[in-house]
Amino acid sequence: MVESILDLFPVAIHDMNSEKKNIVLLAVENRQPNVYGLLLKSEILKESIFHAVDHEGNSALHLAAKSNKKQPWRILGAALQMQWEIKWYQYVKKSLPMHFFVSYNNNKTAREIFTETHKELVEEGGVWLNDTSNSCSIVVALIVTVAFATSTAVPGGVKEGSGTPTLEKQPAFSVFSISLSSLYASPSPPSSCFGPSSHQGTKKRMVILK
């Protein structure tokens, strides 16, 4: 739709709303990668629209840095949402040379704005990771319990009178015995999907922007 409008009315690319936001600023603020990508590829004088700021002095990079709960699609989990926000910010930042963007707004850089406006999401992401880790640990414990019970069950059962394995002298029983011995000799105990260091590392990556 945007492409069709610009083809029919090219001058519409310079239109602004009441907050002095043009199509570039609105696309970045509302997290619309397809529209933003279309504008990057268009044969227009980028200096005129990508260098614009709104009535509060926000450039496209400032709007990309601001936390916005209005997402083009639903993202489950605060940590995944935070990852998407970081990628969107980096995408906008690397899309054009830095001289296209105003560096400061109210004496704050875009990176400082990102850190300030995403504090709550970082905390929610930490809680989400802990909850996911606990759930994963429970599932792993259940799987290991069932797998261990299955692997240690004697194939063919045992004789009621003597209690000896029914297939004691069969090759299949010999294979079972060797496998069971290897299981007990394994030095690596089952672990959860996420170790403590993984929590810390993921949380640090949430706030590190290059």
Keywords:
elongated; 10 helices; 210 residues; single chain; 0% strand; mainly alpha
Describe this structure in words.
57% of the residues lie in helices and 0% in strands. Mean pLDDT is 75; it is low at 188-199. It has helices at 2-8, 23-29, 33-41, 46-50, 60-65, 78-95, 110-117, 119-151, 171-185, 196-207. It contains 10 helices and no strands. The chain is mainly α.
What share of residues are in beta strands? under 5%
Structural class of the secondary elements? mainly alpha
Oligomeric nature of the chains: single chain
The geometry reads as: elongated
Give the low-pLDDT segments: 188-199
Mean pLDDT: 75
H/I helix tally: 10
Binned, the helix content reads 55-70%
In short:
By secondary structure, this protein is mainly alpha-helical.
List the topology elements.
Layout: H1 2-8, H2 23-29, H3 33-41, H4 46-50, H5 60-65, H6 78-95, H7 110-117, H8 119-151, H9 171-185, H10 196-207
Helix pairs in contact: 6-8, 8-10
